[in-house]
Amino acid sequence: MPILYLEMHPGRTLEQKRAFVSEVTRVSVETLACPPDSLQIVITEVPREHWAKAGKLLSDS
Amino acid sequence: MPILYLEMHPGRTLEQKRAFVSEVTRVSVETLACPPDSLQIVITEVPREHWAKAGKLLSDS
Amino acid sequence: MPILYLEMHPGRTLEQKRAFVSEVTRVSVETLACPPDSLQIVITEVPREHWAKAGKLLSDS
Amino acid sequence: MPILYLEMHPGRTLEQKRAFVSEVTRVSVETLACPPDSLQIVITEVPREHWAKAGKLLSDS
Amino acid sequence: MPILYLEMHPGRTLEQKRAFVSEVTRVSVETLACPPDSLQIVITEVPREHWAKAGKLLSDS
Amino acid sequence: MPILYLEMHPGRTLEQKRAFVSEVTRVSVETLACPPDSLQIVITEVPREHWAKAGKLLSDS
C-alpha cells in the first residue's frame, strides 16, 4: 500500500530514474517491512520556473 | 468542498474523461450528500516512465 | 494503476465512505476501462478550520 | 519548512508567477512567522480538460 | 479554480491561520487576477516526526 | 529541491521511520545526485478505513 511521490526538477536520465525507483523500493522494503509489489512510486518533474524558494523562482536564482 | 484527484497513465480519450467526471460526480453526490457544484475533480496524467511498482518503471515492465 | 484522492470535511459515516469507494470504483472501471484491483482510493478529512474559500476559514463562514 | 502548492489553469505570464511567489512568500513570512528561505512554492498548471466542476470538464463549460 | 495547499508544522494559532488565508487570498487575487471566491486553500499540519530533511526527522534535529 | 511524500498505514515505529528517511535520503543522493540537505521527506499515515482497493475499504478487507 505505501505510495511514494517524488517531486524534482527535470534533467535526470532514465537510467537515474531506474536506479532511484529500484533503490528506494529496496530500502523501503527493508525499513518499512512491506512487500515490494505493494509499493508504488510516482515521479513529477517540476520546471524551475514553477518552483520558488525564499520568494524567487528558481529559474531566476 | 470535496476535491478529487485522479492520477492515471496517459491514453484515455476526452470522451472517457467526460464520462469519468460526470459519473464520479453523480455517485459522489449520492454517497457523500454534497451539492454537485461543490465538487472539483483534477486529473493528472503520469507517463509510465514516471510510475514504478515493485522497484521497476512501468515503461520497463 | 489509477490512484484517486478525495479531500473532504469530516462528518461522513463509515457507511457513506463504503458506498463512495464502491460506487466510484465501479464507475471508474466502466469509464476508464481499468481493472478494479488496479484502483486505489485515499480519503483525507480536512477540518473546516484548515479549509478556506474567498479568504475565510470555513469554520468562520 | 512550509511548502505551498498552487494548482491553477495555464495562461498566467512569468511576470505574474514572479509576483505571486514574491507576494505569497512575503505575507506567509508575516502571518506564519517563518524565515523566507524556509518556504518553498510549487506551481502546477492543470489544463481545463483535466479540471472538472459540477460533473463537467471546464473545457466544456 | 486555483487551489492552494499549505503544509507546515503544527503550532500556529487560529488567528495566524486566519491572517494567512486572508492575506494569501488577497495577494493571489492581485497577482493571478482570479476572483476571491474561486480560490480555495487547504492547510495540512505535519508533525516534526513525520518531516525529514537531510536524512533526519525534524523531531530528532 | 527534491521533495518526497510517503503515504502509508499507521503502525510503523519511530525507529522504522528514522531508518526509512535515513536510507531513502542516502540512496536518493546516490541516484539523483542531489545534496542531502536539499531533500525533504513528508510522511502521511492514512488509516485503513480511509484507504480502498478494488472498491473496498482496507479496514473491511
UniProtKB/TrEMBL annotation, chains A, B, C, D, E, F:
Superkingdom, taxonomy of origin: Bacteria
The UniProt record lists the keyword Iron: no
Active-site residues per Swiss-Prot or TrEMBL entry: P2 (proton acceptor)
This enzyme's EC code(s): 5.3.2.-
GO molecular function: isomerase activity
Presence of the UniProt keyword Ion transport in the record: no
Residue ranges constituting the 4-oxalocrotonate tautomerase-like domain according to the UniProt record: 2-60
Keywords of the record: Isomerase
Family: Belongs to the 4-oxalocrotonate tautomerase family.
Protein name (Swiss-Prot/TrEMBL): Tautomerase
Lineage, broadest ranks: Bacteria, Pseudomonadati, Pseudomonadota, Betaproteobacteria, Burkholderiales
